[in-house]
Design goal:
609 residues; alpha/beta; 23-stranded parallel sheet
Amino acid sequence: MISINTNLSSLLVQSSLKQSTNGLNQAIERMITGFKINGAKDNAAGYSISTNMSTKISAYQVAEDNVSTGLDLLTTAGDSLSLISNHLSRIRDLTTQAKNGTYGEESMKAINSEINARLDEIQRLYDTTEFNGLKLFGGETQVVGGGEDGSSLISTGAFLQAVTPRDTSTMTTLASVDENVELTSGTYSISTAEELAKLATMTNNAKIASGCEFVLANDIDLSAYSTGEGWTPIGKYSSDYSKCFQATFDGNGYVVKNLYINRPNEDNQGLFGYCYNATIENVGLEGVNVTGKDYAGALVGDVYYYTNITNCYSTGNVSGDTYVGGFVGQAAYYSSITDCYSTGVVSGSSNVGALVGDVYYYTNITNCYTTGDASGTCYVGGFAGFTQPGISITNSYSTGNASGNWGVGGFVGRANAGSITNSYSTGDASGNKDVGDFVGYNNGSTIDAASGHIDKDAPKPFEYTPIASTTPTPAPTPTVELSDILFQVGIHSNAESQIALNTSFALTNLAELRNIGLSEGNYFETIDNILASISAKQTEYGACQNRLESALEEINTHYENLLSSRSTLRDADVAQESSAYIRNQILQQASATLLATANQSPSVALQLL
C-alpha cells in the first residue's frame, strides 16, 4: 500500500538509527571513562556492588596510612629507649669502675659527675620523647577523680602519726590566684608540681603572708625539676623576713617525690629554703637529692624563730658544706621538730647531722629518729652535728654511723650545754679526736642516765614504726592510661581491627644513682631493675611492630583483591567497546542513507496522479 500520511519504511529506519546512535554514544562514554558501569542505569546491581567495593578500597588506603604512622611512632619510641638503655649501660660500667678501690675522692667526684650528666639526659629523654604531640614514656595509670576529697592519687607515705587527708575540694586552688597579688589569708590547695613551684615564686617575691595555709591535695612528683640547678626552694633569707616562708604548710599525708637540687655554691637549700615563724606538718619527701653550700637539708635549709615541724619524714641524700642535715640544715630559736625521721645519707664539712646539722638556741626535738650515715670533717653526729645552749632532745635515737676528723658522735658530734633525755644511738663513730659512740665532745650538756650508746643487737628502749597515711574510701572512678596507644589497622570498629599498646613505663629510683662513688648503696640492683623494665618494654615494642607489619601485609592483600574484583565488575574492555563503536557507527551511517531513501517513498504517490 502506498500512503502519503504514514511512511512505515521511514519509521523503521528512524528506530534503527536511534538504536545505533545510542549504542555509539554508550561506546564513546565507556571508552572516555574506562568504565562499563557509569551509573545505576547501566547495571543497578553491579553499580551498588562496585560502590561498596570503592568505599572499602578507600578505607584500606587510610588503614595502610594508619599502620605506617604507627610503625613510625614505634621507631621513635624504640630509638629513644635504646638511647636510655645505652646511658644506663655506661652508668653500670662507671659503677663497676667506682667499686674498684684505686680511686681517690676527686676521681670519685669525676665519675659521679658523668653519671649525673647521663642521668639528666635519661630523665630528659623520658620526659620529652613524643610523637605528634603524644607523650610516649611518661604517665602510668592515673585515677581520674578520686576519693571524696577529689584527690587524684592516694598516698602511701609512712608517717610516725597516721594522717587522714582533709577534704580539699572546696579550697581555692593556688593555680587560680594571681601570683603578682599578695596573699594575706585563706587556705589554698596544691595539686601539681607547677602549683608548688608557684608557691616558691610567690614566697620568694614576698607575696605570701603569715595568715595563709597551703594544703596538698595529692602526691607531687618533682621529676620535671631534675635538670640543671633543679628545684627552687620555697622561701629565702631577707632582712625583713618578707621573703621567708612564714605560713602554714600541711602535706595532708601526701608525699613530694624526686626533689633534686644542685647548687653547691648557694645557701639555704631544701624543699623550703628559709622558714620564719612557720608551720610544716604531715608531709613526706622521697627520693631526695640535695646539694647546697651552707644550711642544706631535705625539708628545710634553715629553720628560724618559732617554726614548728611535725609528723614529716625524708628519704634520700643531702650534701653541702656547713650546717648540713638529712632533714633540716639548721633549727634555731624556739623552734621545734616533733614526730619526724630521716633515712638519707648526709655529707658535708662541719656541723653535719643525719637529722639536723645544727640545733640552735632553745629548739626542742622530740620523738624523732634517723637511720642514715653522716660524714664530714668536724662536729658530725648520727643524729645532730652540733647542739647549742638551751636546746632539748627527747625520746629520740639514731642507728646510722658517723665519721669525720674530730668532734664525732654516734648521736651528737658536739653538745654545747642543753639537754639530751631518754635517747640512744646504735651506730659507730669514727675519727681522730673527740670521738664518742654517743657524744663526741660534751661541753656542759646534760645527758640523763637513760641516754647513751647501746649495741645494735641489744634490746632497744623504744623504736618508732611509721604508719601509712589513711584515706577516705574512694568512690568508683574510671581510669585512663596516659600513654595507651590504639592503632586502627582495619576498616571496622571491632577488636580485630585494632591493636593496643601502652608505651609508658615507670622510671623509678633514678635519683638513687646520683651518689655512686660517694656513698654506699646497692646501685647494681637499681640499675639492673631499670634495665630490665626497659628491656621488657623494648620487647613489647618489637612484638607490636611485628603485628603492625603483618597487618600491613593483610591490608595490601585485601586492597589488591578488591581492586581486581572491582575492575572485573566495572572496568570497560576497550577492545570490545572499540568494536561496538565501529559497528554502531556503520549502522548509524547505513540508517542515515536508508532514511533518505525511505523519506522519498511518499513522492511515488504523485506519479499516480
